[in-house]
Amino acid sequence: MSAELIGVDWGTTNLRAFRYDDKGRVLESRRSNAGVGTVIGDAFEATLCELIFGWFTPETRVFISGMAGSREGWIEAPYVACPANLIALAARLVRAPSQRLREVWIAPGLRADRPDGISEIMRGEETQIFGALETREPALVIAPGTHSKWARVDRGHVIDTRTYMTGEVYALLRTRSILSRLINADDANPDAFALGVKRSLDNNSLLNLLFTARSEGLFEHIAPRSLASYLSGLLIGAEIAEGRAAQRLSVDAPILIVSAAELAAHYKTALEVSGFTKVETMDGEDAAACGLWRLAELKGPK
Amino acid sequence: MSAELIGVDWGTTNLRAFRYDDKGRVLESRRSNAGVGTVIGDAFEATLCELIFGWFTPETRVFISGMAGSREGWIEAPYVACPANLIALAARLVRAPSQRLREVWIAPGLRADRPDGISEIMRGEETQIFGALETREPALVIAPGTHSKWARVDRGHVIDTRTYMTGEVYALLRTRSILSRLINADDANPDAFALGVKRSLDNNSLLNLLFTARSEGLFEHIAPRSLASYLSGLLIGAEIAEGRAAQRLSVDAPILIVSAAELAAHYKTALEVSGFTKVETMDGEDAAACGLWRLAELKGPK
To answer: Span B5-124+291-299: which CATH code?
Structure first.
């Protein structure tokens, strides 16, 4: 492998770049808020070159995962059908047009067609998941976030996936709903969080429980400064209740959470409240960097 | 009863007033957008008198239900504990200070303390529900809306209640989420609506199904103009799945939906898709007007 390799995780709201040494170790990383949603027209190359200024030469090859491969991205990359491994992903890399970089390759997403006819999709998380599988052997990977992903995995393959709108629903309720007027701070309160998780696991009744954030606040059963934790617990608890039923998990299934440390810790707590006994975490950027490097290795030099 | 009686349903976003004849028939009604949320300081009397200009004399008595009795309202009225009937409600009317009207009475809300320690509350819907019970004998009343209320009823009493945040979650997702970019119209599509209802009933997995509005749109399984109906079906279906489990309803329980006609029709369809066989509807304003008149009768003249 040439040392002139750059990996890029380009989501809707964030752009992250990794510069590797010739063994695939990350020498340096950079990030910006120039997510795909902020890039106008064909400014993808210019936006990327601005972030990686000083890193690249005319020999540099770039591998990109995420929404840069969506219809609104740099160039549309397909969805590879599950079950799929990283080799299948590498075989469907799409080359993006570029003037200033030797090669730009964009990773496909993953698609899982459910028996009931619903298609589940992901773009970006698959590269993190395959990166994580280089060093771990969980039965399930969870990539929490705006649209939280659960992937059942087996011997390097993603078997099926589910997406949960947990993070986006939380943000909308936290900032724009009737609850936002009651919540006067975001103190992390572990008891309120655990209460929310437990109630969601016990009730399986999210639309009802969301309103209890209001009534429990009005009656001062939960302090206004702790309501954000309670709301977060309700939503993550509901996600876990849905996910364990949909993907038929036993409590001793090894689970790996791939994300930034703080969010991973919340999910780990919630999974343990739910009775899961083998929960580990891994940094999401490390996983992405590893997955992108492995994609480049599998693609090979041109 | 004096003919000089006015009933007022004063919610967070709407204000409705009814002028009665001496038999309790509504002679005239008026409405405005001057909900409690828009009234500043002690401007409640002035706001009301503006709406009912020409209707009142120094002899007029006014009975009000809804958020006018909340902490942010005209004067705070208590929550009466369930089980409760209209007589219990009338006994806890709170008199609001007024210069220009002979008497202003504000109805209390209802409160149901669940075995698991959660308090369910309502303010305004209880008066509609008791109004409806004057002429109907359902086992359950549903008052759909921003915060949809389910009330189990028996011989004029509300036994317990549940609130579902269905309408508010729909509005947030429809207008402010990633889904809002995909939805390019609000054509009512009965098939997409029924599909959403069925999927929620089959899966009990709302956070996951909400995201399918995106994937089903991307793959054009559902036309963009029909996604709003699908989303509405998912949410109303989830509410019904939660409600029938929480309140242990058999499919032949008589259900009365109290709301504006269009919303009532959606709920009736969804309940019938869910297998309920005895579903009726009643106009929400008629129910409120009837409940307010009965409250005044029970209070008696002063």
So the answer is: 3.30.420.300
* Residue A76 contacts residue A19 (beta carbons within 8 Å): no
Give the SS3 label for residue B11: coil
**CATH, range A164-283:** 3.30.420.310
Q: Which residues of A touch B164 (CB under 8 A)?
A: 207-208, 211
pLDDT in tens, A144-201: 999 999 999 999 999 999 999 999 999 999 999 999 988 888 889 999 999 999 999 9
Q: What is the C-alpha separation between A13 and A37, in angstroms, rounded?
A: 6
Query: Residue B83: is the preceding peptide bond cis (ω within 30°)?
Result: yes
Do B211 and A147 make contact, defined as CB atoms within 8 angstroms? yes
ipTM of the complex: 0.95
User: Which among A121, A180, A182, A205 is the top mutation candidate for probing chain B, defined by the most B β-carbons within 10 Å of its own β-carbon?
Assistant: A205
- Asked if the A5-136 domain carries CATH number 3.30.420.300, the reply is yes
Same fold, A5-136 and A164-283: yes
Using an 8 Å CB-CB cutoff, list chain A residues near B163: 208, 211, 215
Query: Does B177 lie at the interface with A, CB-CB under 8 angstroms?
Result: yes
- Residue extents of the structural domains in chain B: 5-124+291-299, 164-283
Neighbouring CB atoms inside 10 A of A152's CB total 23
Q: What is the pTM of this model?
A: 0.95
Residue in A150, A191, A211 to test binding to B, most B beta-carbons within 10 Å: A211
Contact A102, A61 (CB under 8 A): yes
